[in-house]
Each structure stands twice: as C-alpha cells, then as structure tokens.
Design goal:
With 433 residues, the protein is α+β, with helices and mostly antiparallel strands. Helix content is 29%, strand content 9%. It is built from 13 helices and 12 strands. The strands form 5 sheets. Strands 2, 3, 4 and 6 form a 4-stranded antiparallel sheet that branches. A two-stranded antiparallel ribbon has the order 1-5. Helix 3 (81-95) packs across helix 8 and helix 6 crosses helix 8 (288-297). 44% of the residues are buried. The structure holds heme C (2 copies).
Length: 433
C-alpha cells in the first residue's frame, strides 16, 4: 500500500486495536494457553474536542471476532504485547482490500488475502481455487512463462487486458486455498529436521524428497515447505509472492508486474502506479508483506479435538496403514527469537516432503517438484476445511483418502479394505486433528 493511504488507515485502526487487545485478554474459549492479561499495547488517542455531539466511544468489539469458539484465527498463546500488536496490525493488512490507486493489478486474482483465506477464521482455507497452466510434451512440462504462465491472473483492472489460458496450454490445474493456522510453527522447523525425514527407512513404495528452493529473502537455498508443491520456505517469501501474483502489488522481493499473457505493451499501457508499490513505512520499517508475514507467523495452530475411544482406536489404525509414514505426527521447532515459536512441538501430521502421487499429481512441475509430486498435506485442522485435496475435488475426508495414488496407493488400498467400523474410527481420529 502507498504510504499516504496507510497513514489514513492507521489512524482509523488505532481505536479498534485498543479494543481488540483488551478483548484478547479475555479467557480463551478454545484450547491452548491463555494469553496473559496485559494492558493495551497502544494508547487510545484522546477524543478530539470539537463542536457537535460528544463522539461515541468505540463499540465494544465482540470477543467472538477475536477468539472464535473454535480457537481458529487466534494468536499463539504467550505473546508479548508488542507481538500481539504486530499480529493485529498484520491481520489488518491481511484483511485490507487493495485499490487500483494503491497498485492493485493490472492483472490479479483477488483484492485481499482474506478474500481467499477465510474459512473458520481469518487465515483459513476456502473453496477458492487458482488456475495453473502449461504445456506438456513427452512428459516435459513447460510453464509457458512468455505467455504469463504458470499462474493465471483471472481478473484485471480493465476488461480489455484479462488474461486467458493460452491455446498452446495442454495442462491446466486448479489449486485450492490452503489454511495458514500454525504457519509460524511450520516455518520454525529447521531444514535439517525435514531433510532427516528422507533418511528414515520406509515401507516399500514410499520415498519422499525435499523441495529445495532459492529463498528470495535470504538468497540462500532452503527447504521449501509452504504451498501444495512446497514451493516457498518462508512466510515473508510467500507473502511477497502472493502480493504480486494474487493482487498485482509489486514489492521488494518481487519488483516486476505480471504482464497480461506476457504482453509487455499492454502492461505498459495499464500499469499506472510506479514500482515498487508496497512501500516500507518510515514509522516501523515494515511494508505490507512484512505485516502479513507477522500475522501468519503468530497465528495459533488449530486446536485438537477430544480423544474419544473411537479416535484413539483410529490413531492406531492410521499408524498401521502407514499413513503416518508421510503424515508424520509431529516435528520440533528450533531456537527462535519469538519464545512462542521456540523449541515447540508441532503436531502438523506431515513430513513436509514431496511424494510422487501418481495420478493424483496436478501435472504442474514447479521447482524441485515434478508434475506428479505433491507436498504431504498437513492434516491438522482438517475438520475445519470446506473441501480437500489440492484441487478441492474431495467433498469429504473419506473421499480425500480414497483419492490417494502413487506412493500412497498401498496405504489407500488398505484403508478401503478396512471394515466400515474401522474406517469410521480412522475418520473419527482425523476429525480430532
Ligand atoms: C485468489 C485467492 C488467493 C489470494 C488472494 C491469496 N491466496 Fe494465499 N493461497 C491461495 C491458494 C490457492 C494457495 C495454494 C497455492 C499453491 O500451493 O499453489 C495459497 C497458499 C498460501 C500460502 C501457503 C500456505 C501453506 O501452508 O501451504 C500462504 C503462506 C499464503 N497463501 C499467503 C497469502 C497471503 C499473505 C495473501 C495476501 C497477500 C494471499 N495468500 C492471498 C489463494 C489465495
Ligand atoms: C506417500 C505419502 C502419503 C501416504 C502414505 C498417505 N498420504 Fe495422505 N496425503 C499425501 C499427500 C502428498 C497429500 C496431498 C495430495 C494432493 O492433494 O494432491 C495427502 C493428502 C491427504 C488428505 C487431504 C488433506 C488436504 O489438505 O486436503 C488426507 C485427509 C490424507 N492425506 C489422509 C491420509 C490417510 C488417512 C492415509 C492413510 C490411509 C494417508 N493420507 C496416506 C501423502 C500421503
């Protein structure tokens, strides 16, 4: 966002921040440690004296909005006041609808992060999909870079420049929005922990490889872990990527706009806002991409449901069927400057590796990930998702398991061969994650 706009919005948001911080001090409804009651991190501005009726105080924010009954969308427990303020400030950016004057477009997919990430709470998944395209010849995938691939931007600030899937494309895939709850914990898992997962002995037919990506933030090679193809290693990198590719907001890591189907002349005609659009604020040294990353990093993981006898029985079957070989129950974060992320157990149910999923793969090669490779989807928070599998094709969790193929074929077949009662136990277990 341009600085002038940000200043206007900040003034509006300060009073709601104070109310929100106070609301956060209420006892939590969901599981997880209680945030310590704390004074508001930001002082309320004194009411402006002036003519007319006395200004109304801000309406009390419903606690519901801050800490939904499910706990989804809440900040991590044990944050400092400053971290809580960063969470709320970041969430405001995550919810902000970008404008054309602020740099939206010329081509884009939606106007805000929350437009797609909202199921169960701000930061959630949704049914929204984005489209990827390319051309596959003799098994080799070409992302058709010169024609605006592989990600389609399906909206535009002017109807004349809308991007379309080019005729050359013979591979088209949809990818559904993933949830961000607990993303900071996933980010804080050391690369070496994920690499170790490739060295373990596995049942016949199951392998798994690390996604190696060049992190645009550090310039270093890192282990990718975010996205269906594990295509980014850090939340700041994904934030910069999403700002430019989903909203058309250029930023310091991604300073170039996407040209509609690669047409530079069209871009030049319609791109009216100078790069870089996401400016660093002199007030706090942050740009929008940093704030959105703060919000995602400090989001609490999904709360676990109660371990009923059926769920406990299902967990044992889950392990017996080798589901847990890929969906490894937990990893541990390394040392972290944020205490709430430091040396914590992360119950994500994923090895964060790429697996050859055979016919379930989406046909799009991206970085280390080949056309059939997909990242083991973390299973935490499964029950709050509107739809499952990378393109949202599964309307139930049962369908998602039945959709497994490739390295997971054997495991899937054994699931299908269970008695209905045992299958229900597995589903009862999955519904507690
Ligand atoms: C048009 C819908 C849309 C918008 C807008 C959008 N996203 Fe996403 N987001 C997605 C989809 C779809 C995926 C999965 C994409 C993939 O893996 O290729 C995703 C994945 C992610 C992930 C990876 C999470 C994980 O665990 O794998 C992050 C992080 C993310 N988005 C952040 C953001 C941020 C920050 C914004 C705003 C700047 C944003 N997104 C805007 C649809 C959207
Ligand atoms: C070889 C590794 C592997 C094994 C074994 C495996 N999975 Fe998966 N699982 C994956 C991958 C990869 C995905 C994402 C696939 C996609 O959507 O393209 C996934 C997705 C899922 C999903 C959907 C998650 C979502 O976010 O949509 C569920 C549910 C699931 N697995 C449960 C199971 C169960 C139950 C078993 C055992 C019967 C199992 N998996 C065995 C790798 C595996």
């Amino acid at each position: 966002m341009k600085i002038a706009q940000r200043l206007r919005r900040r003034i509006l948001s300060v009073s709601s921040l104070v109310v929100a911080t106070a609301a956060l001090a209420q006892p939590p409804r969901g599981g997880g440690p209680a945030p310590a009651p704390a004074p508001p991190a930001v002082q309320a501005p004194a009411p402006q004296p002036g003519p007319g009726p006395a200004p109304q105080g801000p309406a009390p924010a419903p606690v519901q909005e801050i800490a939904p009954r499910t706990g989804l969308g809440s900040p991590l427990g044990g944050l400092t006041d400053a971290q809580l303020a960063a969470f709320l400030d970041g969430r405001a950016d995550f919810r902000t609808a970008e404008t054309v004057a602020g740099g939206l477009g010329p081509i884009f997919n939606d106007v805000s992060c929350v437009a797609c990430h909202d199921a169960g709470g701000t930061g959630g998944a949704s049914r929204r999909t984005v489209t990827r395209f390319g051309r596959t010849v003799n098994g080799v995938f070409d992302p058709l870079d010169a024609q605006g691939g592989s990600l389609l931007q399906e909206r535009s600030i002017n109807p004349g420049i809308r991007e379309v899937v080019p005729r050359e494309a013979n591979t088209v895939a949809r990818r559904v929005t993933t949830p961000l709850f607990g993303a900071g914990l996933i980010e804080a898992i050391p690369d070496s922990t994920i690499v170790r997962g490739t060295l373990e002995r596995k049942p016949a037919g199951i392998a798994g490889k690390v996604s190696v990506v060049q992190d645009p933030v550090s310039g270093q090679n890192r282990v990718g872990r975010f996205g269906w193809k594990a295509q980014q290693a850090t939340l700041l990198a994904f934030s910069g990527d999403a700002y430019v590719n989903e909203m058309g907001i250029t930023n310091r890591f991604f300073p170039a706009e996407n040209a509609p189907n690669g047409n530079a002349a069209l871009l030049a005609r319609f791109d009216r806002v100078a790069e870089v659009e996401d400016e660093v604020s002199a007030i706090d040294g942050k740009a929008d991409i940093d704030r959105a990353a703060d919000f995602m990093r400090l989001l609490a993981p999904p709360p676990r449901g109660p371990a009923t006898p059926s769920a406990v029985a299902g967990a044992a079957i889950f392990a017996r069927l080798d589901c847990a070989v890929c969906h490894t129950p937990a990893m541990t974060t390394g040392r972290h400057a944020i205490a709430a992320l430091s040396e914590k157990t992360v119950g994500l149910y994923s090895d964060l590796l790429l697996h050859d999923m055979g016919a379930l793969g989406d046909g799009i090669a991206q970085g280390t990930a080949g056309a059939r490779d997909m990242r083991t989807a973390p299973l935490w928070g499964l029950r709050s998702r509107p739809t499952w599998l990378h393109d949202g094709r599964a309307n139930t969790i049962d369908q998602a398991v039945r959709g497994h193929a490739g390295e997971a074929q054997h495991s899937r077949d054994r699931y299908v061969a269970l008695s209905p009662a045992e299958r229900q136990q597995v589903l009862d277990f999955l519904n507690t994650l």
